[in-house]
């Protein structure tokens, strides 16, 4: 299940999430050598706090930029977008909007240039201010960990009754820093012990799939991609899932 899930997520990410389109009118970043020689040209690299489409102008009424590659591949319109897996530089600003260019992943820097609301960007100096600590056996418990190749997969039982995507993201990143800071690591968070015996079962179908999907609340992949209720997908609906992801 984990292997197929990973390839599914990878495919979706490449095509749609922080997706790879091509726009020949966009120019690439200033040569990095020139930037280091002139400190005035060194641009601050921002984190992205939430997903956003890219706009042609600095307002919500502006045209969204179309992802030509994804649109052609999937047969319906998809837009250029950024998400939490991206890092960007700011090329221009206008009121509460910023014109950005993706620098990570680097293969998107020629296509992903457009306007977003400035509030979704995080200056690197503000990262440490967002760090929150959590207590093991109060906020979470480690069910077990398992290596697949060089990747450490850590399975977590959540001890909170109330949570949302942002809280889970912070918790997952905290656990990664505490438990596996120097290696590839996937964090998998569940809110019930009742489905522990199904975590590694493969294949999983029908009601068992629904049961796991309802309690598999967050996944942080080794490359920093976060997924809220990662198994609430088309199969979840097909198998009769009653609580789709909002």
Topology:
Layout: H1 2-15, H2 32-37, E1 45-48, E2 52-53, H3 68-74, E3 81-82, E4 87-94, E5 97-104, E6 113-117, E7 121-122, E8 140-148, E9 151-158, H4 165-179, E10 185-190, H5 206-215, E11 216-220, E12 226-228, H6 234-238
Parallel strand pairs: 9-10
Antiparallel strand pairs: 1-4, 1-7, 2-3, 4-5, 5-6, 8-9, 10-11, 11-12
Please characterize this protein's 3D structure.
The longest helix has 15 residues, at 165-179. It is built from 6 helices and 12 strands. It has 246 residues and is an alpha+beta fold. The protein has helices at residues 2-15, 32-37, 68-74, 165-179, 206-215, 234-238, and strands at 45-48, 52-53, 81-82, 87-94, 97-104, 113-117, 121-122, 140-148, 151-158, 185-190, 216-220, 226-228. The strands form 3 sheets. Strands 6-5-4-1-7 form a 5-stranded antiparallel beta sheet, with no helix packed on it. The chain has 2 domains: 15-126, SH3 Domains (SH3 type barrels, Roll), CATH 2.30.30.40; 131-238. Mean pLDDT is 84; it is low at 1-17 and 19-40.
Put simply, the count of helices is: 6
Overall number of strands: 12
Might you state the CATH topology name of the largest domain? SH3 type barrels
Radius of gyration: 20 Å
Tally of separate domains: 2
Could you say which structural class the secondary elements and strand pairing correspond to? alpha+beta
Q: Report helical residue fraction.
A: 10-25%
CATH H level of the largest domain: which superfamily? SH3 Domains
So what's the overall shape? globular
Strand content: 25-35%
